[in-house]
Amino acid sequence: MPRHSPRNLIEVLGFVRELRLMAFEVGYEVAPEYRQIPHDPDKEKCRVRVTLASDSEDLPSFKFEAGGRSYCHACQEAALVAIGELRQHFEEELDSSAFQYHPHKPHGQDYGTYTCPDGEESATLMHAVHMLSAMDAVVVERDKAAHDRENWNRGKICKLKSKVYRLQKELAELKGRTPLPTSKLRLTPRKRTCPPPRLQLASKIRVMGEAVPDHAEPVIDIISDEEEEEDPEEREPATPEEEDTSLRPDARRK
């Protein structure tokens, strides 16, 4: 992927536009600058750092980073991170602005926190905020489900490799050969670790729903020479419809 020179992305919409307008609202005089930075190609295709620069002592400068599947996607992800942290840092300034319903999302937090719109005269605005909050939570759960499935697939691959080694070992013994030694196969699921928040500010807003904390994921150890036969009843992680019988088609017809 060709490297992109630093840009302000004045004509780009989406989160990039919202961040630019929010930055002007709190006092920044220059639009945020997006710069492509080195990244790990095994984890992401592009990584971007967005910088909010200030010469004033009362207005701090910020830098936020995010990765994505392309340069444009990484810019939008970085802008979204910056929006959540600016909303948290400039809470008092933005509470009385047009950005009061943008989510608070400190660094390292999965769920955005939205100001409760109860009391607004516009029913459309109330529904829009509740919809955004619900969509945010669903996206987080979708990402966690994809992460769980990735760990499940990695476990299956490790079991298959162990089974292949066992068959090769048995074949070598039948032919009177000494099987080659192999190292212990150990699979540790990738954990969704989050760095500590950069900002330590007490929340003064009403929270719409509570975030479900992540639980530590188990470590799966698979020993190649002690692997048991794969259980034919073993299945992939259940979907919400499989876990909740009320969501099944046959249950709805009753």
**How far is it from the N-terminal to the C-terminal residue, by CA?**
55 Å
Listing every helix as H and every strand as E from the N terminus to the C terminus, the arrangement reads HEEEHHHEEHH
Give the tally of structural domains: 2
The total of helices stands at 6
Q: List unreliable stretches of 5+ residues.
A: 193-230
Bin the helical content: 25-40%
Structural class: mainly alpha
Across the major sheet, the strand order is 1-2-3
Question: What would you say this structure looks like, in words?
Answer:
It comes from Oryza sativa subsp. indica (Rice). Residues 245-254 have a biased composition (Basic and acidic residues). Residues 223-244 have a biased composition (Acidic residues). This is ORF0 protein. Residues 212-254 are annotated as: Disordered. By secondary structure, the chain is mostly helical. The protein has two domains: 15-102, Double Stranded RNA Binding Domain (2-Layer Sandwich), CATH 3.30.160.20; 135-239, no CATH class. It is 38% helix and 9% strand. The chain is built from six helices and five strands, in the order H-E-E-E-H-H-H-E-E-H-H. The chain has helices spanning 15-26, 71-89, 91-95, 123-174, 240-243, 249-253; strands at residues 33-37, 46-52, 62-68, 186-187, 220-221. The strands form two sheets. Strands 1-2-3 form a three-stranded antiparallel β-sheet, covered by helices on one side. Strands 4-5 form a two-stranded antiparallel ribbon. Strand 1 and strand 2 (46-52) form a beta hairpin. Helix 1 packs parallel to helix 2 (71-89). The longest helix has 52 residues, at 123-174. The protein is elongated and about 80 Å long. The chain starts with 14 loop residues before the first helix and ends with a helix. Residues 193-230 have low confidence and may be disordered.
